[in-house]
Write the structure tokens for this entry.
Amino acid sequence: MTELVTTVASLDQADQLLAAGADRLYLGEDYFGLRLPHSFERAELTQVVELAHQHGKKVTVAVNAIFHSDRIKKVAEYLRFLESINVDEISIGDPGAIYLLTKEQINLPYIYDASDLVTSSRQINFWAKHQASAAVLAREVPYEEMVPLAKVITIPVEVLVYGATVIHQSGRPLVTNYSNFVQEHLDQADRQRGLFISAPHHPETHYSIYEDINGTHIFANNDVDLMSVLPKLSELKLNRWKLDGLYADETKFVEIVKAFAKARDLMAQQALDDQQLAKLDEIVHDNQAPERGLDRGFFDIDPNEVK
Amino acid sequence: MQAIKVKHPEVLAPAGTPEKLRIAIDYGADAVYIGGDAYGLRSRAGNFSFDEMKEGAEYAHQHNAKVYVAANIVAHEQNLAGAGEFYRQVRDAGIDAVIVSDPSLIETAITEAPGLKVHLSTQASATNYETLNFWQNEGLERVVLAREVGIDEIKEIRQHTDVQIEAFVHGAMCIGYSGRCVLSNHLSLRDANRGGCAQNCRWKYDLFDIPDNGQKRELLGHGPDGKLEEFSMSAVDMSMIEHIPDLVEAGVDSLKIEGRMKTVHYVSTVANVYSKAVRSYCEDPENYQLDPAWVDELWKVAQRELSTGFYYGTPDENFQLFGKRRRMPRYAFVGEVLAYDEVTKQVTVQQRNNFGVGDTIEFYGPNFAHHTQKVTDLFDDKDQAIERAPHAMQIVHFTCDAPVKPGDFVRANEEK
Ligand code: SF4
């Protein structure tokens, strides 16, 4: 069964996302999780968990930051809190948090998510042996590599089917540092500020960049949209689809989720044809922020082309 | 009163070739790290064959030093076959440990090459003690910390784990968390985690936003000199030479020098300086003093400004390359001493770069031996007087007032 995992930006949106067909909500707090549309306080988080459970849906909470000593100390307590409010799963990117789960005997399944680092079946199975319930596949794994990988993995992998792809995380405040050097000071470098950089000789490119307490984050030129190739993912039984609304408008993101949910449902009835797929993809494009492009990322890339 | 000695941490130097391996050890490194064919992150840095590894390990062990093989790629599906065999061969070559970052390769090394010690690469961004505990539990001997970890954090980590800690002390650095940067994959189709990084962080970018009208609005600013400054993310290099006591006291077991692609000149100089400083400190911590000559020496092989990275706080704009570059002292590596005749005071040198009569050159050797000499005469291998030595590998001799040793190197200041 295909599972739609979507980020959440508010309690309101959570409600709409569940109605739109999301199977699992993904959210968390910036102090513990990376690149979230909204940083949920514990009270708010609890409300979302309750809401999702009322709908018979699941919640994954982001605990995937790279922890320094100051923060790792607070992780165990946070995990116990998450356990106490019956969170269904957490995401982890720092093996230190896995160590804590065992040491503190906290009973929470986790999906291993180290952004770009999960690139092979053997690694996925490594985390499986360490009790991971699933793993987030790096966006740099092309379809041709997914084919052999899918045959041997022992736990589900999550594939980003829509949204922004992170391509760099720095511990330094890169925009602030630049801004401090030049005379024209930028007063803001957070995500809301909507900053981009473009590569030399490619003024048409637009890589999003922002700073938060986890450092500086840079994103791929275009957001990922795998609508047109969903049947291929399905064939490989890569059935955990993530939609990331980090840079999407709250309402429009719900429309995008609806389109993917529709594709999933039609596919389950074996009633999804190319025409419908094209139509659904149009919905995705219509709801995409005008300043952001869409493409299939690394999906079509020939692995031999990558040096 | 007898000086209190402290535990001597290892000085770990890079070695891109068998020649550099020997040189690094001759110049005081307690260990070197090298690349192995398919699994190393510096795919373009000279990699060692298994025979070369074996010879390198033998040489190192004769000199009480160790050799590690960096096998720190993050494997994709097609890289998996053969990994076990690779690690077995590395083990059988007598290598002391492999430096690995991909968990799948760590598992392969541990299960398929029993007895081979494994170190976690900095690429895995280990920043806290629970992470170190996790990897120790997996059977790892050592963890190379992320470059983002500060001195105080190391102290804290040390208190909570007894796995060996390795930390970078010198050389170029990634601007991002190592391993968490795929700029190169996306901008150049070269996989940063499989040795292909195109150093895209050092590019010059445009910075802008797109207001509601959909038009790009430039946000680049001007530097203090009034010139337009493009957006870049280039880190200055690291040097912790002035803080050796802090590192040793924090409990670092191995001080790592970056630079498997770097020259013989760099490797010999940096290994020389750090091993000297660490030895001086450990022999007599109370009376230890930083010798300014060590710092000068490092500047002779510096390619960028130097900083302390994250050790004393989050790096600000001064730790990045903006504006005009500071002028680096420029030294050329001009030769290697083959022989010295005490009676005639003639030194025989094999040339590596053009030099000649009138130049001031500097001899340096292991143990921080130094001698500065003005070249007043010069003869070729047929004892004919010449003015300059223009040919690569040319053998020449000339007067040198102080005794120097075979194997010593010669450098010349290029700014005359
Ligand atoms: S682009 Fe820069 S930060 Fe990224 S991997 Fe390459 S050197 Fe490191």
The longest strand of chain B covers residues 331-341.
